[in-house]
Write a structure and sequence with these properties.
The structure holds 3 protein chains of 3 kinds. Chain A is α/β, with parallel strands linked by helices. Chain A contains 11 helices and 6 strands. The radius of gyration of chain C is 33 Å and the shape is extended. Classes of the chains: A alpha/beta, B alpha/beta, C mainly alpha. The interface between B and C is large, with 74 and 56 residues.
């Protein structure tokens, strides 16, 4: 018993670098041996809501997708973007892309290049990328009143009046849905505060896990129709889209979020075990009156 | 106070006259509830500022994080190390950054008094210039303009994580004894706080970013949560007009609570069929 | 003195009041200024101000190198990175492309083969289809960083079409086009570095949790329990946690809460064991192994979703309102000139 206590106390005061090593291994091993770490993914009600809202859109609906994330948050949000584009293109929905972050341009370009060709979608006819505009909420307000006050050319320099799918789009009221892929400011909050709620345009969002606490009041108020919370939300949505498209005979390979969920799960389990270990050590050291710690 | 009341009544009457004379065409009617809200909030805060200026005693509860500022700078002085002040990663268009700069001016005054090195890495060029002005003024106020130099406030990068990497590098190399994180933060908050913790610095954080508060609470010694951060400059300066504005802010919060309970009660009664009156329509929420 | 003290205050107060009351004035010019122009003025000023910051950063790094201060070698990297980004963005387009006119239909497959030597082709069949639909004029999807590599490739494919022309993407678009020098820098250098810094958070979260989540008092315990439920409930592993483990932990939790009220530890132990036996028996009887029979409260994902939807949303709203009021008060002080951070 004493030996066990000593072991726990020793473990409890281990160098933080061992903790880093354990966390690193917990992420690395599922990536190296994915077959050993297959886990079922069940959609939460929020992810299901997002899927249902997009699925309810009719063919030739117009959806604005706003890219507000960069390379650092790409692993969390980009899988949502890919799954969303798969979902929208499979339903022949027109996609209008904008970016409130400069990095969002690159993410949008990459997402379209990954998905559009597989559905035979043509730029300017089925999707258009208007690009980045600085100004945050001013851009959102501008788009709400008149898109042409914000954008006169698209990302590639084409006059937007020469783009077929922009002909009957004057402002956000001409769109059927807005989807914000957001990692911070400006992002989902600005869309809901300055466009979607005042104009009554339905909106969903995919955001980082950290942002969920900020956005959840809007979801609860039904101002945002569902939320894809970080990588777990992205994985759930990927699963729903994959199942739906497979039913329609469209083969979609598992998305990156689904593949990475095993790694995230293991990391969470390791952190929880470390917390429990830390508390056992804290209890033992407090009991024996010694000082323990990291 | 009576004269002020006369002036304010005069201005209000003038506005109402303009509204009536132009048949309301100069005013956006859909914004009426917001306008009324702005007037009530402004009047309340102004009333308490005026009250404080005329000598009324206002009690502010002690905030441990603010009391610890001088203690933290003192610790850095004793150890012969520097003080690091991080004013967040947003620009001056965010009120959090402005509040952070206000706190910086107080910290700079203390570092000038104690002759401690101050390092202020910034993420935006405009913030750099504002922070320089604030520090220069503070050092002048403390009677030590000779200790101020421009490069104590310097620019690192606009990019969030490049900035975090730069600040972490400063912390690891220079090992400041006190770290202040006062401003708008996002995901880099825990990177900064954990690195500060690893070097054994005393850390005082304050932010208006609700999602980052838990990270600061976990890793820092003191955290100013929510309104405490915005009240900090008023608290530290001890100026009556600023303290009066905090009291006004608290009264407004109380009014908001009453409004929430009233709206909830009235709407519940309407939904039960007891009342015909829809408060949500009056407030422009339906 | 007027320029340093009174002028900034006049500008701040004047513009602040104008923007505040401008929201309520029904005039298109006023509305246009308030909604668009004011923010764009700020963006323009901030864009010019970037020069100040960049020059300051360069100055400090160059001084470090010149004076050979501690770790001056890292400053060389900083200066080189800065210079490279400026070069790729402003001085070198690095976005050359090749357009083929009147492609001979029988050469389409050969063309795809040639393209596959310079770029990975995921779906050759799709590419063949795409080329066949654009035989009159087809732009090869590969972007060449250097003109010479584009010229060398154009020589290779010269027999494929009637005409092979070299072009270069316009300034501005060159930073967006995938394959250009700037795009290469963004995806191959900036993206991995940013991702690495963000990934550090995972390690820091682990060490911070390990240090901070201790059962010191009731609030800390509540934080610990909620944190564990959310961490496990939000990932697929949460689905694998069996109902009997959740019910057992709940019984232990209730036992911990009522422990101070029951001085007799044997009685407490009996209550806990009884609770575990009762819940387990109930579960076996009602076949809670089947998901459709299991009460929602015994599923960690459901509990974590409830925590998100109710306590978290409520707390988040409260903090948001508090922060909003703080912002209002601070803005009020700045607009009235009571507080002058400038």
């Amino acid at each position: 018993m004493d030996l066990l206590k000593k072991i726990f106390i020793a473990l409890g005061s281990m160098d933080r670098r061992f903790i880093f090593l354990l966390v690193g291994l917990s992420v690395l091993l599922p990536k190296l041996y994915p077959d050993l770490f297959t886990l079922p993914i069940k959609a939460s009600s929020h992810s299901q809501r997002v899927f249902d809202e997009i699925d309810a859109l009719k063919e030739d609906s117009k959806v604005l997708v706003s890219f507000e994330y960069g390379p650092s948050t790409k692993p969390e949000i980009h899988p949502s973007a890919i799954a969303l584009l798969n979902h929208l293109f499979s339903k022949n929905i027109k996609v209008y892309a904008v970016a409130l972050w400069p990095d969002g341009n690159f993410m949008a370009t990459e997402a379209f290049s990954q998905v559009a060709d597989g559905y035979g979608k043509k730029y300017g006819v089925d999707y258009v990328n208007l690009g980045y505009k600085p100004g945050g909420e001013a851009v959102v307000k501008g788009l709400a009143s008149d898109i042409r006050t914000m954008y006169t050319v698209d990302l590639l320099g084409n006059d937007i009046d020469s783009i077929e799918m922009m002909k009957d789009v004057k402002n956000l009221l001409d769109l059927d849905f807005i989807f914000s892929l957001s990692a911070g400011y400006p992002g989902s909050k600005e869309w809901v505060q300055f466009a979607c709620d005042p104009l009554g345009i339905p909106m969903s969002t995919g955001c980082t896990s950290i942002q969920v606490t900020d956005i959840i009041p809007y979801v609860e108020n039904d101002q945002i129709k569902g939320i894809l919370s970080g990588m777990p939300g992205a994985a759930e949505y990927e699963q729903l889209v994959q199942d739906a498209l497979n039913e329609r005979g469209i083969v979609v390979s598992p998305g990156k979020a689904s593949i990475n969920m095993a790694a995230q799960s293991m990391a969470h389990v390791v952190i929880v075990l470390l917390i429990i270990l830390g508390n056992i050590t804290y209890y033992l050291t407090r009991k024996s009156g010694k000082k323990g710690g990291m | 106070m009576n004269n002020k009341l006369l002036v304010i009544s005069g201005i209000a009457s003038f506005i109402i006259f303009i509204y009536w004379a132009t048949f309301g065409s100069w005013f956006i009617t859909g914004n009426a509830p917001t306008f009324v809200g702005v007037i009530i909030v402004s009047a309340t805060i102004f009333y308490y500022i005026d009250g404080a200026k005329s000598g009324k005693e206002i009690y502010l509860r002690p905030i441990p994080g603010l009391k610890a500022i001088e203690e933290a700078v003192g610790r850095a002085t004793e150890m012969g190390k520097s003080v690091l002040f991080v004013p967040g990663i947003s620009d001056m268009d965010q009120v959090d950054t402005v509040a952070g700069i206000n706190i910086l001016s107080h910290v700079a005054e203390i570092t000038a008094k104690y002759e401690t090195d101050l390092n202020v890495p910034t993420c935006r060029a405009i913030v750099m210039e504002s922070a320089r002005e604030a520090c220069r003024e503070s050092y002048l106020r403390a009677g030590r303009p000779d200790l101020y130099y421009d490069d104590m406030v310097h620019y690192i990068s606009d990019d969030q994580f490049a900035y975090a990497a730069g600040v972490n590098g400063i912390m690891i190399r220079e090992k400041p004894a006190a770290c202040f994180y006062q401003g708008k933060f996002y995901a880099e908050s825990l990177l900064l706080a954990e690195t500060g913790n690893s070097i054994g610095a005393i850390q005082i954080a304050g932010t208006g970013s609700a999602s980052q508060i838990p990270f600061f609470v976990t890793a820092c010694d003191y955290t100013l949560i929510g309104e405490e951060f915005f009240a900090a400059s008023a608290y530290l300066s001890n100026k009556p007009e600023l303290i009066g504005s905090i009291k006004g802010q608290d009264i407004v919060k109380f009014m908001v609570m009453i409004l929430m309970v009233s709206v909830f009660a009235l709407d519940s009664l309407r939904q039960l069929g007891i009342l015909n009156f829809d408060i949500l329509v009056l407030l422009g929420l339906n | 003195m007027f320029l340093k003290r009174q002028m900034p205050a006049i500008i701040a107060i004047g513009v602040g009041l104008f923007i505040l009351f401008g929201h309520f004035i029904n005039n298109p010019n006023v509305q246009g200024f308030v909604n668009n122009d004011a923010t764009q003025w700020f963006d323009i000023i901030a864009s010019f101000a970037i020069f100040l910051g960049a020059l300051n950063m360069l100055k400090l790094q160059v001084l470090k190198v010149v004076k050979k201060q501690r770790n001056w070698q890292y400053s060389i990297l900083a200066i080189f990175g800065f210079a490279f980004a400026i070069f790729a963005g402003f001085f070198f387009r690095g976005a050359n492309y090749i357009t083929l006119t009147d492609i001979h239909p029988q050469n389409v497959n050969k063309l795809v083969e040639y393209i596959s030597t310079v770029q990975e082709v995921d779906d050759p069949v799709l590419m063949v289809k795409g080329i066949q639909g654009s035989l009159a004029s087809y732009e090869i999807p590969k972007i060449f960083i250097s003109r010479s590599s584009a010229e060398a490739f154009s020589v290779t494919i010269s027999g494929i079409a009637k005409d092979v022309t070299l072009g270069v993407k316009p300034w501005g678009a060159h930073v967006q086009i995938k394959g250009s020098l700037f795009s290469w820098m963004f995806f191959k250098i900036f993206t991995p570095l940013s991702s690495t810094m963000f990934a550090l958070l995972a390690f820091f979260v682990a060490s911070a949790s390990y240090r901070a989540f201790r059962i010191r008092n009731f609030e800390a315990t509540l934080l610990l329990v909620a944190g564990i439920i959310l961490m496990i409930g939000r990932v697929p592993v949460g689905e694998l946690v069996p109902w009997w483990l959740v019910s057992t932990l709940m019984v232990f939790g209730i036992g911990a809460l009522i422990a101070p009220l029951i001085p007799d530890k044997k009685l407490l132990f009996g209550i806990i064991i009884g609770g575990i036996v009762l819940t387990s028996g109930l579960g076996i009887l009602l076949d809670w192994n089947l998901a459709v029979n299991m009460p929602a409260i015994l599923s960690l994902p459901n509990i974590s979703e409830w925590i998100f939807d109710y306590p978290t949303a409520a707390g988040s709203r409260a903090i948001m309102i508090g922060i909003a009021l703080g912002i209002i008060a601070t803005s009020f002080r700045i607009i009235l000139g009571i507080e002058r951070p400038f």
